[in-house]
Amino acid sequence: MVTCSDEKWPIVYIHVDGAPTLEDLHIYLSACDKWLSREEPFGVVYNQINAEIAEKNESKEVHKLENEWKNQNKSRFTQYCFGIACVIDSIKLLQKSQIIIAKSIPNTFGCPGMAFGTIAEAQKWLESSDRFASGSICPRYPPTPTLAKSPNVGRKLSSAIAFTPFEQ
Description:
Elements: E1 2-5, E2 11-17, H1 22-37, E3 42-49, H2 51-56, H3 60-80, E4 81-88, H4 91-109, E5 113-116, H5 119-127, H6 130-134, E6 146-147, E7 161-162
Parallel strand pairs: 2-3, 3-4, 4-5
Antiparallel strand pairs: 1-2, 6-7
Helix pairs in contact: 1-3
C-alpha cells in the first residue's frame, strides 16, 4: 500500500508498506509527476515500512517500470529535488543500505540521498539543505566549481577553484 502527501510542502512524503504493486507504483509516480510539474524545489521523505518483506517480494515488472520512469525524469529531479531521504524500518537493512543509498540516489535522481531510521531524522536532514532554506532551483548536481577566496587567486586559475559540496 502507498500513500503520498504534500501537506508539508516543500517536503513531500511517500509511505510504502511492503513491496509496491503496479497500482501502488502508479499512485506514487503520479504524485511525483504532480510535484515535479510545480517547477519548485522540494525534498522527498520515502518511508519504507516492512522493508524486509518488501526486499523479499519485489516485483520485477514494478522494478522495471519504476527504473524506466526514473530514467525519463532524472533531469527534472536534478533540477527541482533538493534531496531524497529514505526511511527504513529495519536496522539490518538500514545498515546495509546507508552507503548504497548515498551513492545510488545521486546517480539515479541527480540529487543528494541518505538513509535514516526515523522520519524525524530524515526531515531534519532535508531541512538542513541549503536549497530548502533558500528555495532555489539548482540546474545540476553535483555543484559546479566556484572561485574560492584564496591568497592564490591570480597565480594559477586551477589553484583558485574549489568545489562546494552539499551540506549533509
